[in-house]
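step 4 of 6: structure.
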Amino acid sequence: MVTRDPHRFVNELDEAAVERLIARLESRAKDAVFTRLFDKYAARLALPPSAQVLEVGCGTGAMMRFLAKRSDFSGKAIGVDQSPPFIEAATGFAQRERVDDRVAFRIGDAHNLDFPAAAFDAVIANTLISHVTEPETVLREMARVVRPGGTVAIFDGDYASLTYAFPDHDFGHQMDVALASASFNNPRIMRDLPRLLPAFGLEVNAAWGDAVVEIGNGSYFKSFAETYAPYVTGAGLLPAEAVEGWLAAQRQAMENGTFFASCTYYTYLAQRS
Ligand SMILES: C[S@@+](CC[C@H](N)C(=O)[O-])C[C@H]1O[C@@H](n2cnc3c(N)ncnc32)[C@H](O)[C@@H]1O
């Protein structure tokens, strides 16, 4: 039984699987449930007019496009991701949305950032830290490249709180746990940040949680289930037939208007000493 976080090992996936992840990132970025969470912390970044911002693990660049379009942002943003197809997609989307004068993308590893110390006013990790191999190395790198007084923003889910309703509660719980462990290297990392951030000279200025809940209908959690349930089977965590049954029941619940799913997301804004 081998679990392989698909986002961490995106460079080992076939082309079709990479395309599905690109589609998932873009559909998530259009989901109001999700975009309001980015807006909530972007509004509190307090960036200077000529701000230089780095997003680590930028995927298709949706967050940096949002940032570039904000009326309170007049600086420059760079997104780094390990995946060449994601960076190619990010560059194309930024051109199409005419923000490529303010946003650029390049390939890189969050564990070893190719930037000098103190190069950025703010460094963001938006649903990255749950995927990386060594979260502490990534936090050290983020702390290194942000300037003293600058902000590190970390947003991610606490995937130990991820839950879908399912009539058989025992299997529903097994499926919740399997989804979290098949899809995330670090499903509980957001609980560790109050302890980890200060160790890298990052003082927590603000931190909060948001329960993302869909009752009746599902959009965010619909695409989440459809994207990640196959990885539960692929990792051999639960039998394929049972996972298919669970997925069918989720689709049926959405059709009936009886769907329920929830997960708590956390945001930390920390200042570099
Ligand atoms: C869930 S996606 C989030 C993408 C983007 N931040 C967003 O919110 O739309 C996680 C991203 O982290 C990237 N990633 C994972 N491990 C990485 C690493 N070690 N270095 C750089 N990128 C990494 C993946 O390639 C993927 O694009």
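step 5 of 6: annotate
 - Residues 34 and 234 are 27 Å apart (CA to CA).
 - Strands lie at 52-56, 76-81, 103-107, 120-126, 146-164, 202-216, 259-272.
step 6 of 6: archive
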